[in-house]
Amino acid sequence: MELDESRIAQPRPIHILFIGAGAVGCFYGSRLHRPEANVFVSLVCRSNYDTIARDGVQLKTHTFGDYQFSPRAVYPSIQAAAEADNAPNQGWDYVVVTTKALPDVTDDSKDIEPIIKQAPEGRSCIVLIQNGVGIEEPHRKRFPKNPIVTAVTIVSAEQISHGVVKQNRWTRISMGPYSDGLGGTTPATKTLVERATRSTKQLVKLFTEHGKLRDAEEYDEVGILLVRWHKICINAAMNPSAVLAGGVGNADMVTDTELRTHLRGCMEEVFEAAPAILGREFPAKLAKPEQILKSTERNTGGKPSMLVDWEHGRPMELEVILGNPVRIARRHGVDLMRLQSLYALLRSAQRLRDERKKQEVVHEPKKKEPEAVKAPEPEVVVAEKPIEVAEKPVEGAEKPLEGAEKTFEEAPVPSKL
Amino acid sequence: MELDESRIAQPRPIHILFIGAGAVGCFYGSRLHRPEANVFVSLVCRSNYDTIARDGVQLKTHTFGDYQFSPRAVYPSIQAAAEADNAPNQGWDYVVVTTKALPDVTDDSKDIEPIIKQAPEGRSCIVLIQNGVGIEEPHRKRFPKNPIVTAVTIVSAEQISHGVVKQNRWTRISMGPYSDGLGGTTPATKTLVERATRSTKQLVKLFTEHGKLRDAEEYDEVGILLVRWHKICINAAMNPSAVLAGGVGNADMVTDTELRTHLRGCMEEVFEAAPAILGREFPAKLAKPEQILKSTERNTGGKPSMLVDWEHGRPMELEVILGNPVRIARRHGVDLMRLQSLYALLRSAQRLRDERKKQEVVHEPKKKEPEAVKAPEPEVVVAEKPIEVAEKPVEGAEKPLEGAEKTFEEAPVPSKL
Asked: What parts of the sequence cross the membrane (chains A, B) (predicted)?
């Protein structure tokens, strides 16, 4: 019943369900969907359901030009997908989660349970394309027998209107197996690593051969977690600071002497902690804190997604970007001091903001209720003036600075509220 | 020409000028003013000048009952005091600065120069009753020959209307000489220590014998600086965090698990740094971080003064409470990491707030210009439910927890803007 690479050439179809039809879900879904090769992508939408169910997804990409993506099936909710007549007989081969990671608001693993249970126990592979660290744990706990592939993307894309997705730059998606966060220490988790590794290889192959991505990358478990922590190094520093500093963009932060010292301190904390937690050094190709800061100087106009969320009164990904890193490090005896301070302050600020918002609703009952707190897709937006090439690329001048691109991608988008 | 203790009994008058006729200035000024003993206090006022010039100051005190304070002279500005016909012939014996410490807005040492120059060079003793650390340095630089007495007070008092000052609780004022921040390392600075020590002793005697204060305390130079740093331990943790956490009062902060961890981290940083900087341990009687946190749990309704300033759009004492500690520690090779993060974030937030305020003024030219940024007196306000006795007093059950009272004193006051 397990998936394996040879299936690509087999007549048996591969069924992939994307949970979250935002920019990331639509872009990567469109790269995998190849009915002629028996690979079928379906989407669970939210507010954009009507449009996509009727017209499919229109892609305007920097890398592949403009094209239409007509998913095999489109569902208005997970429950609808679970109850649909047109669901695959054996359940889904891959369930790809691309929603914003908000464990303090919703439990993604509980949400996808009806979908996972459509397949025989342990069959569906769960793929998580989300920000943060520690996002795999709830899935691991709820689905102890399912392979998990955890993925980090640096794509810069945005949904400019319902069903219309613009990819601005970058395509890279890095993937690897997740068993127990340590690379598999028991026979049971070792088996999970093996299965998820085969799934990773299959996804890399599908993305590369069918999707024509040049940088779908495979890592081992510790390797992909190091990539996640490296992204934390950037996001946990830049994102909350942009909010707490009163609403400051990326370049303005790194050109303020004190803020730069603070940001470097945050990054260095993570740079020292992650290898201690994971038992392996960062790959040399990943940008060091000073390189990240240097590159960010030119990212004028760029705003971290968390600041955009804050400005629009939306929930921020602070648990997966700050809370989980702090807690995971603590379990390993490492204190992330600056990150803990940012976490404590921003968590409180968000709670008070939400309490005040609730009071406003109570006091002004005629106002329309604010939209449900969970956004349907991650914020992946683009800087006004993205930098093509970092000043001191570490792998080669024609490539972006490895691991530093995330700071260039994020800019304000028109509010949906 | 030097002051000495014996002068109290001498016929020659002692002339004391308070710069800043807020709650602190009026309270301590009223305790020193004894015309019958040849000790004369004069005041430099600001917005409350007309009232005090006409009616004097009305004191409503917890400790000494209600009484009237009629200063020898009242001036509307420092310049007016410097040019007044009724200024003392030999200049002022003591120039006591009780304004809010805002070195990023005004240079107090430059402001008082006309007053200091009324006396022969090096004669006037400068007394600083202000928050923060490093506040003495600009005075030391500008007036290399004047003795400086640096003072920390925990009085809880407020000016409830122009010229009406309410003292709610506490009277303690701790004083000591300031030469070079190290206790005098050269013959010249040793002389300054000796002179300022005599001035400290005289002030303690005046406060005690004339003013009937039971806790006017004398410290040596390193001792009083340790008291300052201990107050930083509390204020640098509580004050900026209350603002950055979205507007949280004292008790609510310490009962939030993550904020408490953050606050403890801030306090411990200072607790470790100050002895390294000053070469002496904190006195055992000063409360430890956990004791401070514990006591603060019951300070419901109390708000740090910085949060009150923030809520009213006023400048905050962030340079003397955060910037100076961070810079002084850095000079001694110590990184105050959490404090540096707070400093970077709050400084940026304040700057952006002020820029937005300016833009509002530009866009709405008919609105009244906001009041000049420098407040005339430090915010010394009181918690709604001050705690009489800390849960675990370190010196005795009838006394407040040493060094922890500051967190109980601060609460919202009606806005003056």
From this structure: none
- Residue among B252, B254, B258, B346 with most chain A CBs within 10 A, to mutate: B258
The answer to whether the CB of B107 falls within 8 A of the CB of B137 is no
Three-class DSSP category at B282 = coil
Distances (CA, A) of B269 to B229, B230, B288: 11, 11, 12
Confidence of residue A124 (pLDDT cuts 50, 70, 90): very high
Exposed/middle/buried for residue B397 (C-beta within 10 Å: 0-12, 13-18, 19+): exposed
C-alpha dist (Å) from residue B26 to B29, B33, B45, B126: 5, 10, 10, 17
Task: Please say whether the beta carbons of A43 and A18 come within 8 A.
Answer: yes
Cα gap B157→B170, rounded to integer Å: 9
Chain B positions in Cβ-Cβ contact with residue A344 (cut-off 8 Å): 241, 245, 256, 258-259, 261-262
- Mean pLDDT (chain A) is 87
C-alpha dihedral sign at A378, A383, A389, A392: negative
Delineate the domains of chain B, giving CATH numbers in brackets: 5-219 (3.40.50.720), 224-409 (1.10.1040.10)
Token pair of A12 as six digits = 């048996």
Choose the closest CB to B256 out of A262, A338, A348.
A348
Distance from CA of A250 to the nearest CA of B (A): 13
Chain segment A10-44, per-residue pLDDT in tens: 478 999 999 999 999 999 999 999 999 999 999 99
Count Cβ atoms within 10 A of the Cβ of residue A113 and give its class: 0-12 exposed, 13-18 middle, 19 or more buried. middle
B417: pLDDT strictly greater than 70 = no
Residue of B nearest to A262 (CA): B341
At residue B416, the pLDDT reads: 29
Of the candidates B241, B261, B341, the beta carbon closest to that of A262 is on B341
Contact yes or no for B345 and A247 at CB 8 A: no
pLDDT digits (tens, 9 = 90+) for A235-282: 999 999 999 999 999 999 999 999 999 999 999 999 999 999 999 999
Confidence band (pLDDT; 50, 70, 90) for A160?
very high
Residue B358's CB is within 10 A of a number of other CB atoms, namely 11
State the average pLDDT over residues B322-334.
97
| Amino acid code (one letter) for A200 | T
Do A2 and A358 touch, CB atoms closer than 8 A?
no
Best B319, B337, B338, B357 residue to mutate vs chain A (most A CBs within 10 Å): B337
Contact B247 A341 (CB under 8 A): no
Cβ proximity of B269 and B339 under 8 Å: yes
| Contact between B347 and A258 using a beta-carbon 8 Å cutoff | yes
- Calculate the alpha carbon distances from B347 to A339, B104, B240, B336, B352 in Å: 18, 11, 10, 16, 9
ipTM above 0.90, yes or no: no
